[in-house]
Specification:
By secondary structure, the chain is mainly α. It has 2 domains: 58 residues, Arc Repressor Mutant, subunit A; 155 residues, Tetracycline Repressor, domain 2 (Orthogonal Bundle). It contains 12 helices and no strands. The radius of gyration is 20 Å and the shape is elongated.
Length: 214
């Protein structure tokens, strides 16, 4: 059971109903896009009464928000695990980078990104909801981690928020854009661990050669 569903219904039957509605809504959004999707089609696929659908989620925006809250919990929930704050940067950033790449390259998550990119200009609420539960959530969590590491003396960052954004862009840069454009090579050509290790190494240690004796 997801957090978004648990806030919408309190009984087991109600939670199952909410989960069916969200599954149907996700299916319709991915097939038809946000603008073309209708509450009636979502209700038809979910089964049950339209009254329950509106009572639980209100409208399409409410449905999309609940879906993004669920996806945000799946993708970024691990980053909010208190245990991650105890790991040194080399290990923590590597683990987070691998997890992030594996999840953002999931076909369903890529399809959601495409919907927001294509329809966001006409539906600003999509951009806001997506950012708050996706990239914005990751950046906030990573900023807190960097701030804690600076207090420990293991990192020296002037702007932890900017550094969080820069690292996230670096660590997903190898595969995310080609995947969004449908130009990602065969799975045998994808090496997420090696890509993430290089991103972490460059972020923490830089890429310039050091002069001997320095």
């Amino acid at each position: 059971m997801t957090d978004a569903v648990s806030t919408k219904a309190t009984t087991s039957r109600g939670r199952n109903r909410a989960e069916r509605i969200l599954a149907a809504a996700s299916e319709v959004f991915l097939e038809q896009g946000y603008g073309a999707a209708t509450m009636s089609e979502i209700g038809r696929r979910a089964g049950g009464s339209m009254q329950t659908l509106y009572r639980l989620f209100g409208n399409k925006e409410g449905l999309f928000r609940a879906i993004m809250e669920d996806k945000g919990a799946q993708v970024y929930g691990q980053m909010e695990d208190a245990a991650i704050f105890e790991k040194p940067p080399e290990q923590a950033l590597y683990e987070l980078g691998v997890r992030l790449n594996e999840l953002i390259l999931n076909p369903e998550n890529l399809a959601t990104h495409r919907i927001v990119m294509l329809e966001g200009p006409n539906h600003p609420e999509l951009q806001r909801i997506f950012h708050d539960n996706g990239p914005g959530r990751a950046r906030r969590v990573l900023s807190r981690y960097f701030e804690a590491e600076c207090r420990r003396g293991r990192l020296n960052l002037k702007d932890v928020d900017a550094a969080a954004g820069q690292f996230l862009d670096m660590v997903k840069g190898a595969y995310f854009l080609p995947a969004i454009l449908g130009r990602l090579g065969a799975s045998s050509e994808i090496d997420i661990p090696s890509s993430v290790r290089q991103a972490v190494d460059i972020f923490l240690h830089g890429a310039a050669c050091r002069e001997s004796g320095s």
